[in-house]
Amino acid sequence: MTDVLFIATKRPQLGLFADSLVKFRERGAKVYLAGTFRVTSVAEELTHAELDGVHQLPRNLNKRSSAMRRKAKKSPPGMRVWMQSHRDRWLRQQARTAHVIVALDPGAVYTVWRLAQYNTAAEAHFGIAPALRAVDRLSGGTLRPAALPPVGAVVRDVRRSVSGLPAAMMRAATSRPVMRSSVGARLWRSAVAVPGMPGPVRATASRYVAEGMEEAGRISGAAIALSAAAAKVTDPALKAQLLHESAMTEVSKGISPRDLGKAVDGHLAHADDQYAKGLYESAAASLYRALSLGFHRVLHIDQLSSPLAKDAEGFVAPLQKSPAFRAVALPRGRKTPPKSPPADRPLRLLVTTSNNANFLQHILARYEDHLGVELRFLDLAAHKSLKRIAWSAPQILEDRLSDGTSEYQRDVERLMRPHLDWADTVFLDWSVGPAAMLTTIDPGDTRIVVRLHSYEAFTRWPHMTDFSRVDDLVFVAPHVKDLVTSLVPQLHEASAPRMHVLDNAMELQGFLRPKSPDARFNLGLIGISQVAKDPRWAVEVLNRVREHDERYRLLLVGNDMNPKTSKATAEYLALLQRELKPLVESGAVVRLGPTDDVTAALTDIGVILSSSVREGCHVGLMEGAASAAVPVVRDWPFYAGKPHSARTLYPEGWVVASPEEAAKRILEVTATEESWLDACKQASEHAVGTWDWSVVQKHFDELFLG
Q: pLDDT of 685-702, one tens digit each?
């Protein structure tokens, strides 16, 4: 057995890397990857590529001495990587036993050279092709990778492509200058789709082409090349992989892929093929990729639109046609019904979540002191073993496909049964990974209550949850319930849980405080950390009212968006910053940033905005209304015109269809102090009388105790 250790300082091109790993595994090699890039971002995909180990090397020198950091600043990049990594115990141990040590990029060359000084028996190389030849020598094999010849040879006869050219020549033939030329790009796109080319060679060629096009800025061209190659490949697994890479090429740049449907269908086809053969692990892996791609956050969360908003049922229709997915969605039910609340002792209530208790504060406080309830709180993320099983999507899918007792199911049973045996009722907040995990086992006679907010509707998790093992499903708004029930057919079956709509627990009475003298002309937006909040809409409203009166200002409360979330988020943030800059400099926009005292911030806000494209109930708006700020709510585009929407959630007059209508409402309501104060009073009375915890807690009492 030959041990190969790869070192990388930047994320490898996963398609090419995974393809190369197959060749190492064919030669019986064990392969490990250590990187100073953010390894967690690709660890799962690399695991699917059959790596024997992935390790995160130190990404900086923050924990080293100041003298070392000063020295590093004066050193070449490659030497800095070594200074960061050379104390890493895993790296030194792995390098000591490796037969081949490989630098995947120039930044790793110096580190590989230094490691080779400690293990003089190992071969040290730069690049995959030399490493593969080294493994051949060590194992006595004779296999060699195949690749396309340069452009000129392709013009003469692309079907003579299996010539074994090294990667360097292939990259030169598909380099940035070639791909910047429309002639070169068109030629290579055609080349990867010519008939008669072996599938693996076609895949390798298309990946080189896609890499060159990406470097040349031709993102859509790269996706088209991979998709065109996939159309000519007959192997279901390879076809699905190429289509996936095609879609991810665009998704990674914040673009909704044109061939998303083909990519999802490719994974589903492979999943169905593997499921029919009883290969459940492979089928689960393909299903996982189909769901992860179809419900990628760039498509639904980091954009101002979503395919689900346009045609939810049509979007998930391909899933319902897949035998493998139907096996996952099959209701398993429970052997015994949940027991009635005890009459001779307090109800044992287990409230649980995973690292998100944002909406549980008042619920926990009430039932902690309730004479009729014995309360326990469980944060799954606080326990390593529970956190691991709560988010193990591939294992959940494999368990559902095998329809038996898997090792994963035994882990869930072992770790969750003590909690289920204690509780009469489990209240699980957020219908995400933990809900899918918990429903892999029969809960016995314990009642299971799950709350679904809004975010979950745009994720894969409801499609992986066995709702026949949930007794009550709580939604935060009618329009969210409509969307989810249109996406999940299981919720229409006889085994579906009882469904409720309960408002979030909010203490609103304390928000009513005297407003500052300038509040009448201050518009406020609470929460701007997601693209879905669409603060640019609020900026447009501000600009329109300032055309009439320059006393109007916009106050922004909350954290900025994180540009690292996705390329789509970064692009939106860049546009927003450009629009805000002159307004901030002139004082028309005031950025208050995050605060722990929203109540105090609201004393300066006289008009509270909801500029979002989608919301569950928009807590920030409700708090603003309770504080006696006039609500101006955009008719959330994701739900506008549907049976339930912002217009059915809020009183008539609060909701507007456009920035023009929003500006008109603001100017009319704030025209005089008397009209403004009257509108403020009505808003506060409605908010407190409808959504305050003193009102809503009765509904939770009925849910748990009634």
A: 999 999 999 999 999 999
